[in-house]
Write a structure and sequence with these properties.
Elements (H helix, E strand, L loop, with lengths): L1 H8 L1 H18 L8 H20 L8 H28 L10 E8 L4 E3 L2 E14 L5 E5 L6 E7 L12 E4 L4 E2 L11 H7 L2 E6 L5 E4 L8 H24 L3 H11 L7 H9 L10 H14 L9 H19 L4 H18 L6 H15 L7 H22 L6 H28 L1 E3 L2 H25 L5 H24 L5 E3 L5 H20 L2 H26 L2 E5 L8 E5 L2 E5 L5 H14 L4 E4 L10 H5 E4 L2 E6 L16 E4 L7 H7 L4 E4 L5 H11 L5 E3 H4 L2 E6 L6
Parallel strand pairs: 5-8, 14-15, 17-18, 18-19, 19-20
Antiparallel strand pairs: 1-3, 1-6, 2-3, 3-4, 3-5, 6-9, 7-8, 10-11, 12-13, 12-21, 13-14, 16-17
Helix pairs in contact: 1-2, 2-4, 2-12, 3-4, 6-7, 7-16, 8-16, 9-10, 9-11, 9-15, 10-11, 11-12, 12-13, 13-14, 14-15, 14-17, 15-16, 17-18
Length: 719
């Protein structure tokens, strides 16, 4: 009866969970050839159940019809999600374009406004036709059909008047480059990120290899016109903010908290807010949408006094909050918050009290129907888990502190909301970011109230910025408020122990942590003792898994040769420490790869060493080194193999700096050794070694296969 009551009070919860399960199953088991198989199975189950119900089920048991109907509905939504996501993968993630070397030109239509990335502009372009060279060396034109694959097109930054706009057509002679997977452990998977957006290739153009086709006027749908208008208003508001506040750190933060533009933020600011546990302040989310909605309702309050004013003000507030969602780019957190506010407003208008969890599930279902890929977005997951934590944990935490004065109540609610949101999102934060902010309560206690004020003042800047005397005063107040808000996370991030490094969190540990959160929700939210037992049981298993992993980590020894661009980077891993040696290449990329590898392999201590060079020493001794009991030879431009008369006994050979070695000499000099060609070699050298590697399994190219790991003792996971 309790389960039946929950299904009746929160029907969208069961449907949404089934829909999510269908998306996950489609991602894990894609069925491009048989996309309708789950639907066929559902119909077979439905038919078998119907036959059993009509001909074989006794009359007194027909009360289970309700349960059968619920199962059928869940199966239908599961199948619908499976088919929807499967079709999306087929249409937006199937790269059927010709090889990049054969494409000599392409024509495409810009489908989104440009995004500034440093000194370049990035466009999303739908490719309509291609000019390719066939096997005979002749030019062919390929007209794309329904797929119209999208590419990220980068060009040099241009003045505003000369930039191509959305819906413009362009022709380019730049190459359409394939995107490779991440070649180092835990680095950002750029290919998967583009796949989620339906982008298949990347193209980089210079000033002379593209041209704007002005004479082609495409047909634009009403939705595209509306979205283009909203984007135009977004750009105007962004320009007004930068014009009034200046291209400073405060201006970039104002654009981030009001319009969702994070391109102007520097890495130091992002890191400080992340370390302080207030990174959500820089992302337009439910917090910002709620503040904007309160401001809109306050401005529309006089309409409530006229006839039907409540209906008019509610409709206008809903339209304006959705328009705000449009100009912020329809981010999933903003859409979720806008949908929730819409349903709450309609419920208040009709004096209907709805179930918050049911409304939350309904909003998630609508968003996932629009774009199933949002389920795998970290922001989408964090947003919903934070709301669930506030919904179930915050009332319990608040009940522990009795308060009667408004200031004490406000501080209590602020602390309990932050604590509830962090508790619910802890598994996701640990899995995605591998760290946990320790001073999040202190930071939120100061930053959240200031952010409310900053959002309200920033909203007034585009409207009041051009008014004499008033505009400069508003801009001055806005800059000072944002400056003070920015100082708090900057100061807290410098405190000792500001964040705890959690190391690499495996999928198994993540699932155990999620089960612990579910157990806490059942225990605290529903007063169910089974939830307490589930939490304690998962916690004990979690500790056992941690102890086993720690023992495995302490017993391992190995060597890793990373895939660093134009450089050489070798790691000697011993237990939970590593020594990085043979370092060259760009410092930023090197540090990023070191940090990522340290997190992935759970490294607690790390140090850097240069590959030692001794003057007036034979090149063999100069380039030979023992790493973790294995002999390693570095072959670079200083190598001299003419004076070597006998084979060199070594376990690993690293070819760097575009050194070309004859294939026969390779096997004579290093019999039985693993040959690793790192990414410091140029394109010509890599093609040379790639040709040899096709016939030789002992040659490993990091540019093709990623970082090479030589496990000497213990288990080293792959990524």
């Amino acid at each position: 009866m309790q389960l039946e009551h929950r299904i009746r009070t929160t029907p969208f919860l069961s449907i949404t969970l089934a829909f999510m399960a269908g998306i996950v199953c489609s991602e894990m088991l894609p069925m491009v050839e048989f996309p309708y198989l789950p639907l066929i199975i559902s119909f077979i189950i439905f038919g078998a159940g119907l036959v059993y119900f009509v001909f074989f089920m006794p009359g007194r048991y027909r009360i289970v019809l309700r349960g059968i109907t619920s199962v059928i509905v869940i199966l239908m939504f599961f199948s619908f999600a499976f088919i929807l996501h499967n079709r999306r993968v087929e249409h937006h993630s199937t790269d059927n374009l010709p090889p990049s070397d054969s494409v000599i030109g392409w024509v495409g239509q810009i489908v989104a406004d440009p995004v500034e990335t440093g000194e370049r502009l990035r466009y999303v372009v739908a490719v309509r036709s291609l000019s390719v060279l066939n096997r005979k060396g002749q030019e062919d034109v390929i007209i794309q059909g329904e797929l119209e694959p999208k590419v990220f097109w980068y060009i040099d930054s241009l003045p505003e008047v000369d930039r191509p706009k959305q819906s413009d057509w362009i022709v380019s002679a730049s190459r359409l480059l394939r995107i490779d997977r991440s070649k180092n452990p835990t680095l950002f998977d750029y290919r998967l990120w583009l796949k989620r957006k339906g982008v298949l290739r990347v193209s980089y153009s210079t000033g002379n290899d593209w041209k704007l086709l002005h004479r082609i006027e495409p047909e634009i749908t009403w939705y595209a016109r509306f979205y283009h208008t909203a984007s135009y208003i977004h750009n105007i508001a962004s320009d007004l903010l930068y014009h009034t506040l200046g291209h400073s750190k405060e201006g970039a933060i104002a654009n981030a908290i009001l319009l969702g533009e994070k391109d102007g933020l520097d890495q130091e600011t992002k890191r400080a807010y992340s370390t302080g546990g207030v990174a959500h302040v820089l992302c337009v989310s439910g917090l910002h949408t709620g503040v904007v909605f309160v401001v809109i309702q306050t401005l529309l309050w006089p309409l409530a006094r006229v006839k039907n004013g409540k209906l008019i003000s509610t409709c206008l507030a809903i339209l304006l909050i959705w328009f705000y969602a449009m100009i912020t780019g329809l981010a999933p957190p903003v859409c979720r918050a806008s949908w929730m506010l819409t349903m709450v407003s309609i419920g208040k208008l009709g004096r209907v009290k709805g179930n918050t969890l049911n409304s939350l599930a309904c909003s998630a279902l609508v968003l996932l129907i629009i774009n199933p890929e949002w389920l795998f977005d970290a922001g989408f997951q964090l947003s919903y888990m934070a709301v669930i934590g506030i919904l179930y944990f915050q009332p319990v935490f608040s009940s522990f502190i009795k308060a009667h004065q408004w200031l004490v109540i406000y501080i209590r609610d602020l602390i309990t909301v932050s604590l509830a949101a962090q508790l619910a999102t802890f598994p996701l934060i640990a899995y995605y970011f591998n760290q946990f902010p320790t001073y999040f309560l202190l930071t939120n206690l100061v930053v959240i109230p200031i952010s409310f004020l900053a959002i309200v003042i920033t909203m007034s800047v585009p409207f009041l910025g051009s008014i004499p005397y008033i505009g400069p005063a508003v801009a001055f107040c806005c800059v000072k408020v944002i400056w003070f808000m920015n100082c708090v996370p900057q100061w807290i991030s410098m405190l000792p122990g500001a964040s705890v490094d959690l190391g690499n969190i495996s999928m198994g540990l993540f699932l155990f942590m999620m089960l612990m959160v579910i157990g806490l929700i059942r225990w605290l939210g529903y007063r169910n003792r089974k939830g307490l037992f589930l939490t304690l049981g998962m916690f004990l298993i979690f500790l056992m898994v941690i102890l086993v992993e720690r023992w495995q980590v302490s017993d391992r020894i190995g060597i890793i040769v990373t895939n660093i661009s134009k450089g050489t980077l070798v790691g000697e891993i011993t237990g939970s420490s590593t020594v990085w040696i043979g370092i060259s290449g760009e410092e930023k990329k090197r540090d990023k790869i070191i940090d990522a590898a340290n997190q992935f392999y759970d490294i607690r201590s790390s140090q850097l060493e240069a590959w030692f060079k001794k003057p007036d020493v034979h090149p063999i001794i100069d380039h030979n080194r023992v790493i973790s009991g294995r002999r390693v030879v570095l072959v670079d431009t200083c190598w001299n193999d003419y004076s070597i008369k006998s084979p060199i006994r070594t376990d690993l050979v690293i070819i760097s700096q575009s050194y070309i070695l004859n294939e026969d000499s390779l096997h004579q000099l290093f019999p039985g050794a693993i040959i690793v060609v790192d990414n410091s070699n140029n394109h010509h050298a890599q093609n040379y070694w790639r040709g040899i590697a096709r016939q030789d399994s002992l040659i490993w190219l990091t540019a093709d296969k990623g970082a090479y790991v030589m496990p000497i003792k213990g288990d080293f996971p792959r990524w």
